[in-house]
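Schema walkthrough. Field components (list of strings):
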Amino acid sequence: MGLQADFDPVASRLRLAGDLRMTGAAQLEPVLREAERTGSPELLLDLRSVGETDIGPAWLIRCTLERLAARGVAVRTEGAAAEHSAYLDRLAGEQRGTLASPARSTPQRWLIDLGRAIEARVLSWVEALSFGGQLIMTASTAWASLRRWRVPSVVRHVYETGVQAIPVVAVIAFLISVISAYIGAQQLRPFGAEIFTVDLVAIGVLRELGVLLTAIMVAGRTGSAYAAELGVMKLNDEVDALESMGINPYEVLVLPRVLALVIALPLLTVIADAMGLAGGALLTKYLIDLPWQQFVMRLDSAIGETTFWAGLVKAPVFGLLIALTGTLRGLQVRESSRELGRLTTVAVVQSIFLVIFADAIFAIFFLEIDF
Amino acid sequence: MDQVRPVIRVRDIVNRFGTQLVHDGVSFDVHAGEIFGIVGGSGSGKSVLLKTMLGLHRPNSGSVEVEGRDIIAMSERELREVKRRYGVTFQHGALFTSLSVAENVILPIAEAVDVSEQTLGELVELRLRMVGLPLDAASKFPAQLSGGMVKRAALARALALDPPLLFLDEPTAGLDPIAATAFDDLVIYLRDTLELTVVMVTHDLDTLARTCDRVGVLVDRKLVVDTLEGIVRSEHPWIREYFHGARGRSVEDAAEGRDGT
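Field assembly_structure (string):
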């Protein structure tokens, strides 16, 4: 039987009928609230036609009656006493402390939150520092023995982060050079300087676009994978398990990953550069009718000795930044699946930021030393 | 003898994974208000059986009736309706780690009924009191709780909608004997006061002896069901090994003790 609940404010009479189920709580609630606001000094609770009662609704009624009693309203019950009342009395009688009410936002609260946020930020930096220190220590002690460099593990990671990323990196590099060749040809045509499209594409791809886009791609692909992998291992106590076996987690988890990316990213960059130039050659052939041989000759004169290296030399640095950010954030995961998601996101965003920031520094540096 | 309709009626369940036959004609009834224990060796398919009863796993053949309705033949919608009728605790608690204990308890309530914050707060207090958790645990996150508290919080969540049926998967695994005994008492108490029907999968012989009215043992791909005393006297070699091995002594004593009274 369904629940019927009504409150008669004139007679101050709360009538409940039917089965009091948890599913009927939404119906019960407004009537209870109404009864709670009664202006009358007494309340009549009519339970004569109540059927089966769940614990939940019984408790809600009890809470309401208690608040009424606290206001000095006399409650008279008609019909049998509510089911479970002895059990609920016993539950309510147990000392279990109080339910913390949700924190209000006061200036004090705001200040506390600010302090906590600053503390967390500082701690995060300290952790990053200690992470770096640990890694340097591990690398310097592992230097002596080849076995401790975990070659198989490094190879596996080079395969996963490098070889498997070739298709996507190649396509991206090709497309970006198509875009820059297209824009270049169009903008330079009014000046009759279409031939400089080759210069634009070659220098753009080799110096900046090839390595930068590859790094961003890898940051999204591998940075997130590193963070998530290590984060799950952390949640599963796998990192602690390693440590308990006397195995340095930095040596088996972090170092191979970092090393692998430092190796893989330059290799990917070379592929990106090649694909970029191929894209440029294709586009110039169709847009400005430049034969292949001409493209190659123009290319030869456009780029200096250092152009290719100016791009490539940045790749291991970017690889290092991405791998360090990913592994650090992964190891910072604690306690919950939400942390895992948050830190994976942080890993990707920060590594892309760091890559672009480092690229800017390189640009200034190369300009200063005229590289 | 009165023929009361069983709460759960399992008939001829067959579960096969590839070439491996896990269940071959498992049949049993669970009656209203009883605590039914399921035991079995590792890999004997206890969890699969539990999932089959919960409607989370579809068996190759057979039927599972919950309160007279076959959940295997049911549509998703009907099944969801049935799922509101039972509460489940998983072996490792399966509390949502990104939610506080209070939010974990609130989740099923807020999904089912539309009530105010204040009411939700009152209901959280009730559930925590029911499972004997201190109320300041409400704002804590699962990672901040001890193993025993996680199990209790999981039970609080399972009880959120006052289900008439409770499934417990290894409720006392990983608890110290004191916490395990307290948990047993809690389950018995809830059964007695709320007239719950409880199905539990457990390896804990003490829990089995203390709480379960009847026990089903998964052996040879079938479920052998009897009272604990009957099971203990079984001639089946695996069951003998299970209950009369080095760890089985206390159960035997308990069973005999109960027999005598």
